[in-house]
Amino acid sequence: MSRRTSPVIPGFGLTLGYTLVYLSLLVLIPLGALFISAAQLSWAEFWAIISSARVLAALKLSFGTALLAALLNGAIGTLLAWSLVRYTFPGRKIIEAMIDLPFALPTAVAGIALTALYAPAGPIGQFATALGFKIAYTPLGITLALTFVTLPFVVRTLQPVLADIPREVEEAAACLGARPLQVFRYVLLPALLPAWLTGFALAFARGVGEYGSVIFIAGNMPMKTEILPLLIMVQLDQYNYAGATAIGVLMLVVSFVLLLLINMLQRRITRA
To answer: ABC transmembrane type-1 domain: from which residue to which, for each copy (predicted)?
Structure first.
């Protein structure tokens, strides 16, 4: 029978109590109020709202672009984190500051800047138009906006883990005959994967709920470039609080399930 080890600093009951009160006031009670408000709808009314073609199109667009942006940042963010940790080069501090820029920049400002850049008359958008495709006012533009906003989550999650991996481990593997791909697969990947999944989950969660940077570049065309957060705002502007609540519950449940699956996968990988 195992015996629980007491921590050096006591106070488990007090800290747990503060944690539960804080969590309840900021998270559990507001989410509970959302479900209570949605419970005023009958199941037929709730299903009619969340199964409408417009809601399903917005759901597919929001989660699809957020997933794609998180995957892109998973690749780009890993390369950036690797370069910043393992190499010293001119302008490194400037790149470090630029990575954190989406944290400080208002999302509406980011949306306006991206729209001006990628619109058909913009510096980059006009070249895309000449090639026969559009960036702004399409799902591609939404994905770019989400990639810009969520990049710091992946980079800042991976940097500490990369910094804690001694270079001597890689050099020892190379001296024992491991090729670069084998070093990455058997030495670096097991240590990086849990942190990578954490960064991916944070980027995905932020992308699903992003509003300010997307509405300008999306064009907000129903059934084409309308995201779920915007659809909720449309329902509120029309005083359709029941519809907004139902869409909010749908968004909450789908996000929770996906994040739960990611966290379960991360725990299994960490244990393995």
So the answer is: 59-262
